[in-house]
Write a structure and sequence with these properties.
- By secondary structure, the protein is an alpha/beta fold.
- It folds into two domains: 22-174 and 234-326, BirA Bifunctional Protein, domain 2 (2-Layer Sandwich), CATH 3.30.930.10; 337-422, Rossmann fold (3-Layer(aba) Sandwich).
- The protein contains 15 helices and 15 strands.
- The protein has helices at residues 22-40, 54-61, 66-70, 90-99, 143-159, 175-191, 198-206, 217-223, 235-251, 282-287, 302-305, 320-326, 347-359, 375-381, 411-422, and strands at residues 44-45, 51-53, 73-76, 82-85, 108-117, 129-138, 165-171, 255-257, 269-277, 294-298, 313-319, 337-341, 364-367, 386-393, 396-403.
- The strands form three sheets. The protein has an eight-stranded mixed β-sheet. Strands 13-12-14-15 form a four-stranded mixed β-sheet, with helices on both faces.
- Strand 14 and strand 15 form a beta hairpin.
- It starts with 21 loop residues before the first helix and ends with a helix.
- The structure holds one RNA strand.
Amino acid sequence: MSSKKPNKTPQAIRGTQDIFGPDAEAFAFVVETFERVRKLYRFRRAEMPVFEKTEVFSRAIGETTDVVSKEMYSFDDRGGESLTLRPEFTAGIARAYLTNGWQQHAPLKLATHGPLFRYERPQKGRYRQFHQLDAEIIGAGEPQADVELLAMADQLLKELGITGVTLHLNTLGDADSRDAWRGALVEYFRAVQGELSEDSQERLEKNPLRILDSKDRRDQKFVADAPKIDAFLSDEALAFFEAVTSGLDAAGVQWTRAESLVRGLDYYRHTAFEFVPDEGSEAAGLLGSQSTVLGGGRYDGLMESLAGPATPAVGWAAGIERLAMLCNGTGCEQLEVAIAAENSDREGEAAEMAAAFRYAGFSTEVFASGSPKKRYDKARKAEPAILISLDVRDGASANNLSALDQDYQREADAAEIFAARTGG
RNA sequence: GCGAUCGUAGCUCAGUUGGUUAGAGCGCCGGUUUGUGGUACCGGAGGUCGGGGGUUCGAGACCCCUCGAUCGCCCCA
């Protein structure tokens, strides 16, 4: 919107959001549930800076990835150093782990959440400033770590009340398995190169694994018969994957094998996973095409890219906005007590009574502004469990308490406070 | 970076093949009615129809440009 007016209200930055109302309640509900669940699994809370030296991300994530090559918010600070707003958590966590000597706590279970930044075109479920939950287990190379991490993710989704979402699981094998598989895929797709989509012809050079989850029909007919990772897995890699899957079964985590699931970033090895809405489910409809709600995997090579010791690790991240879309309507709690001061002489008492209710642990709202005659209706429209009217009739105080919600449990306690305050 | 759709009151939206002074509902403010009650009625504030240019006797509507939003591709949570 261009305008000659000098004092036009500035607009928010593209891809940023002002979250309010039910959306904000759902957002808070997601974060609160995550905090509760991570404590059950004894993941320790950590806070990292929102920005880092650019090289933290370019080295850890990979120069050639889209995230680094075209999606980072980078800028020079006043000393001329290139800094970047974090596009993901893992690289910063790895840096913190190394610079703070957190090796002493290994194996370390870490959880955090907060804003991330990526310069992309916004669309449904995707923003330039977005928010993620993040959980990592660092310094644990055993498949049990993958299982515990996934069990936590699964419980989180259940506690959020999210249904119609299942765990898609794959293995990328160890470095050798992955390289051999990649070579076979390149060979296979090169043979039919001319029939692939334009995007996939390019992927063949840059990131052949990505062809496997192409949405283009021209690609999909070849994907079905493409070489499978299973044929290239070393004995160790196979044993690792079997330990993960049997551990998930033992923990009661539902999963499905997704042979063409590959993760975008270079550092993933072995386990790769995503929680994705089932086709045709309500969740799928709510999310649009940005459907992955939680994703991650094992990244055994990451620490070395930051000049640290070889350190096995697994982690996942989940988009808070996407999770919140799936649990809208939850998190918004009912108003317990509404107090309508229907006469301006009662406004002071209404405030005092509200304080009494609030100290007793009742969520309370006072209606004492605007036309006195319309305050009762306003209070009523707030749909409280208990509605209290303070009025003046024939020169004397007139008080009334009515219970509007039949199922409300604390009515007797509320009535007691009301009676004590009104001398009745 | 590419593509599609869309910008009218604080919000949700009408607005006919271009035709007087741009409307409704909700919300907000005030009044009348009611007087232990989610009432009804009346009134008010609030819009250079995203911005600029063009076509026309006449543009909210048609054309071009621009800004913005939404959704999709790429990529990803």
